[in-house]
Amino acid sequence: MHRLVCNSSLFALWSLVASACSGPTSNEPADGGPETTQTSGDTSSATSGAMSSTEGPSTSASSGNSDTTGTSTSGVTGTNASSSSGSGGSTSTASSATNATSGTTAADGGVGGASSSSGGSSSTATDGTAGADNPGPCTASEPASSNASGSGPHDVIVETNSDPGINEGTIFRPADLGGGERYPIFVWGQGGCSRNGLSNATAMAEIASYGYFVIADGTPNGQGNRTMDRSDLAAMGAPLIAYVDWAIAENSKPCSAYYHSLDTAMIAANGFSCGGLMAQGTVTDPRIVTWGVTSSGMAGANQDFYDLIHTPVLFVEGGPDEVAYDGGLQGYEAISQLGVPVLWFSKDIGHGGDLFQADGGDFTKINLAWLNWWLKGDETQTGKGALVGASCSYCSDSEWEVMSANVP
C-alpha cells in the first residue's frame, strides 16, 4: 500500500493513550518492561567468553526492542530554548557554524539554538568551533576491535575513551581529522536500549563514512540494557546528552585528537526502538538541531512532551505489522500539527527494517539523507532531494508509505 501525504492537516492528538500500540510479540513485553538484546555476528569481534548483544536481523527472537509501551506521562520537563523551525533545511556546510536561536551562539562548551526559522544558520560563529580553548586535560581514545566501514568517502575508525561522559559509548568517526572539514555530531540509542556499542555498527559506520562524528550508546560488546521508562525520558536521554557535552569539550582542547574537527553547532539524535526513546529524551537540549526515531514511536506521550518539540523530526518505520508502527503514527500525527517539519517513511519489512543489511539498508540511507539536509544544508539527491519532491524515489515507490508536513 502506498500513501503519500504532503503538508496535510492531520488531527491533533493532544493526549495520547497510555496503552501499548499493539499486543506483545515474542520479543516485546506487554508491560513495557526491560527488552531483550540483539544477537548476531554483524560486528567484527567479541570479548573472549562474553555474550555479545551485537546487531542482528529484526526477525530474531531476541531482537525485539520496542518503545511503544509506557505510561501516560512524558517524563520530560523544562522548556526548549530553541525557536520554531518553520521552513527550510540547514544552509551551512560542515565547516560553517550554524544554528543559533534567540541570539545564542553554539560555541565549544556552551549551548546553541536548535534551528532557525528557515532551517538555516544564523550563528555568529564562523566555523563551528568558536569559543575559548580548553587547556585540558586530554585522554587519548583507544581503538576498538571492529572492522566496521561504510560506503562513503571517509575511512572509519571505531574507538572508545575512558573519560567520564564518554566511557559508556562507542565512537565511529572519519579517520581524517584536523583538516578543513568539520564533522557534525550524531548520537544514537540502541535497540532494546542495549549497552553494546557495536549493536548497530554497520549503520553507524555508514553514517560516519559520510563525514559525521558518531557516538553510539554502549561500549563494544557491552552487556545489559538501560531501563526503558517513558515516564522519565530525561533520564533516558541523559547518556546521549553526556556524549554531546564531551564531544563539544574535546573540540576546544588543543591536546585532543578532535580539536577543531567537529561542527559543534550541528548536532542530531536518533535511535532504534527503545533507543528512539533515548533520542526523544534529548528534546529539551537546545543544541539538538534535529532528532528522529527508527522503528520507534510515542505511545503514551502527552501534550507536555509535544509542547517541547521545536525542531524537525524524522520517522522511519517497518510497516503496520511492526510493534512500533502505531505509536510512531500517533507521534507523527501530533507533531504534524506543531508547525515543525516532520517526515514519515515506512515499509512493510518489520521491526528494524533493513537496518542490519549492508551499509545499513534504506533505513540508514533515509537517516543519512535527513542528516545531510539539516546538518549540512544538502538539498540535492543525497539530502533533501532524496526525501521530498520529484527526485524522491521512495515517494513514487508503492512499497513505501511516505508522509510529510510543514516541509519547506
| Structural category | alpha/beta
- The first-to-last residue Cα distance is 26 Å
Count of domain modules: 1
- Morphology call: globular
Strand fraction = 15-25%
**Helix tally?**
6
Would you identify the CATH architecture? 3-Layer(aba) Sandwich
Kindly report the average pLDDT value: 78
Relevant CATH superfamily: Alpha/Beta hydrolase fold, catalytic domain
According to CATH, what is the class? Alpha Beta
CATH topology: Rossmann fold
Record field, number of beta strands: 11
- Percent helix, as a range, is 10-25%
Taken in chain order, the helices and strands follow as: EEEEEHEHEHEHEHEHE
Largest sheet: 11 strands, mixed
> What spatial order of strands do you see in the largest sheet?
1-11-10-9-8-7-5-6-4-3-2
Radius of gyration in whole Å, from Cα?
19 Å
Are there runs of 5+ residues with pLDDT below 50, and where?
1-74, 77-127
